[in-house]
């Protein structure tokens, strides 16, 4: 009886997508007339891979991956913050490319984080991911393993709604008017959920391939669903 051979690789994709999406989110893009952070291009993959983790390996393994992703993201954010505060070499901090900013200013403009945005991002990630995994695992029990599309899309609708609402509210409450907050939450939720729905065939392909290779079919009938279990 072998262990989950592909689990580390799936977690690596999960964590990498999370870190990169947070880094590129600083850029705002115009997509179908909606103003969204560029991270929306990649962040839904975190939820897609999260669905794969829960469906193939069960909630307990998905919970482990969520915390691994959180730790990796914390390491990335912490490293970027420390690097930004280290004294820059004089020749590097000069204007070294065509543009209005010095290198140090450009670094802070792109990679600098405010404490409020970091807290909002981390809180939204934990709330959204744990809700996503919980709903998918419960739907798997309710459907007796049938209708994977219902589980992936249903869990994403819940998880992404919570993620978008928590992040936008925590990050921009008091900065944006209430109507703008609601519009931003709705826009992010629709785009991310639509992304997941369109990726359903790929999710089916990956889930079925992993189940076949790993030789597992896990139902969380006796699982402790608390986010933290010692």
Descriptors for this entry?
single chain; 230 residues; mainly alpha; two-stranded antiparallel sheet; 71% helix; globular
Oligomer: single chain
Low-confidence stretches: none
How would a crystallographer describe the biggest sheet? 2 strands, antiparallel
Q: Which strand-content bin applies to the residues?
A: under 5%
Number of helices: 9
For the largest sheet, list the strands in their spatial order: 1-2
Number of strand elements:
2
Helix and strand sequence: HEEHHHHHHHH
Rg from Cα: 19 Å
Total tally of structural domains:
1
Cα(first) to Cα(last) distance is: 26 Å
Mean pLDDT: 88
Kindly state the percentage of residues in helix: over 70%
Shape: globular
Structural class comes to mainly alpha
What this model shows, in words?
- The protein is 71% helix and 3% strand.
- It has 230 residues and is mostly helical.
- It has one domain (7-214).
- Strands 1-2 form a two-stranded antiparallel ribbon.
- Strand 1 (28-31) and strand 2 form a beta hairpin.
- Helix 2 packs antiparallel against helix 3, helix 2 packs parallel to helix 9 (200-214) and helix 3 (59-85) runs antiparallel to helix 6.
- It is globular and about 60 Å long.
